[in-house]
Amino acid sequence: MENYIIEMLNITKEFPGIKANDNITLNLKKGEVHALLGENGAGKSTLMSVLFGLYQPEKGEIRKNGEVVKVNNPNDANALGIGMVHQHFKLVEIFTVLENIILGVEPNKMGFLQKQEAREKVVELSERYGLKINPDAVIEDISVGMQQRVEILKMLYRDNEILIFDEPTAVLTPQEITELLKIMREFANEGKSILFITHKLNEIMEAADRCTVLRKGKYIGTVNVKESNKEELSKMMVGRDVNFKVDKEDAKPKDVVLSVKNMTVPSKHHKNNAVKNVSLDVRAGEIVCLAGIEGNGQSEFVYALTGLEKMIGGSITLSGKDITNASVRERSVAGLSHIPEDRHKHGLVLEYSLEQNMVLQRYWQPEFQKNGFIKFDAVREYSEKLIDQYDVRSGQGPITTVRSMSGGNQQKAIISREIDKDHDLLIAVQPTRGLDVGAIEYIHKQLVARRDAGKGVLLVSLELDEVMNVSDRILVMYEGEIVGELDPKKSTVQELGLYMSGAKRNTKKEIDNAG
């Protein structure tokens, strides 16, 4: 009989209105990378939260090395050598990197904190695994990729041998993803056992030994990755064949919808400006992609466009109207829709219901209110229509609290709201982050449909496949400047990578001529 380090046997976990895990069995071997694959809301994070002690199952048992164990809370999990990097990081933003890593297991002598001893261990671990960090940096000042390193070092500092990664690459750049997958393989070679939740089939093919697939809370099967392929895995995941190529005709650009002239935006992290004198146009009937490695000014550019941050120079015109100094609501009413990069910070009110979030930018319109009173029936009907149309899954439909939904379904809720709103320009920042292949296929179709309906689409993405497949024009941003304009039909991923890393750039004259 096979020896497993962890066995989750017949696990059932229910929430109001939904059976998140329905009699699931999962076995993890020592020293393997085991991927857990499934659509948004398939029950992957719930299952791992049961293993980590965040939830208690209604039925089933957990065994470690063949012995039944009870995991009542994360402290029990840590005592058993189980660690978890959550999809939305569990870090204290005003603490330093070192303070976050040792939080809860602070070394002390006679009640006095031994920070130097902890620092030496953290620095040694970070160097051994190539997870370079500054122990004294404050969490709110470092990039998302760095924050993830902190989460990984938290597990290593506690000497965990079973490492759970929940969507670890959803917020990383392509370079950081390659680095992380390499580190995961290193962990496995050292005898650590990895459980790896992901939607990304390329990563499973590259890093995993075995893959277990869940669909709608049920166990579908476990396969050896070397004996499988992307097509088989995607069919197991969504129950049908998925088209990985974006079908679209050539763009037929019309009038300019968005015109940005000489935009300059200050940086919050250093003395240089984050966006330096950037000009660009987006026309009706085209998808323009702003590509670049994270931290090169794309976020600040979008914040300034949408009114979330102030510019210190330049102008913005939307459909012929100057919106340089307009408020967020004024920009929205003028015809701007925005799928934000950070869904929790800028996209949703987590304690509100799904139906309230669906009308966040429209509740004052006559369709949804009369004499200052909200028409609740109209809100319910509208949100049910979007839930159905975009397959937004939740335990209690429109009255579900958004915080309780899976990350992918939170994203689908935002996308449905923003695409359905009457707009001339759709700004989509990382629109498929955290979505499964079936949902990605659908979202890409929606972006192309907006384009074909004569709308302008500005896509900001770190996913190179998405950049090459969905865009009609690619503008590359490096250190706050547009350094190149590429035609995806005539360019390669390698060429795009050279521009993104700053190794290659066009002159301003070449870019102006191309545009």
UniProtKB/TrEMBL annotation:
<dbReference type="GO" id="GO:0005524">
    <property type="term" value="F:ATP binding"/>
</dbReference>
<dbReference type="InterPro" id="IPR017871">
    <property type="entry name" value="ABC_transporter-like_CS"/>
</dbReference>
<feature type="domain" description="ABC transporter">
    <location>
        <begin position="258"/>
        <end position="504"/>
    </location>
</feature>
<keyword id="KW-0813">Transport</keyword>
<protein>
    <submittedName>
        <fullName>Simple sugar transport system ATP-binding protein</fullName>
    </submittedName>
</protein>
<dbReference type="Pfam" id="PF00005">
    <property type="entry name" value="ABC_tran"/>
</dbReference>
<feature type="domain" description="ABC transporter">
    <location>
        <begin position="6"/>
        <end position="241"/>
    </location>
</feature>
<dbReference type="InterPro" id="IPR003439">
    <property type="entry name" value="ABC_transporter-like_ATP-bd"/>
</dbReference>
<dbReference type="InterPro" id="IPR050107">
    <property type="entry name" value="ABC_carbohydrate_import_ATPase"/>
</dbReference>
<dbReference type="InterPro" id="IPR003593">
    <property type="entry name" value="AAA+_ATPase"/>
</dbReference>
<keyword id="KW-0067">ATP-binding</keyword>
<keyword id="KW-0547">Nucleotide-binding</keyword>
<dbReference type="InterPro" id="IPR027417">
    <property type="entry name" value="P-loop_NTPase"/>
</dbReference>
<keyword id="KW-0762">Sugar transport</keyword>
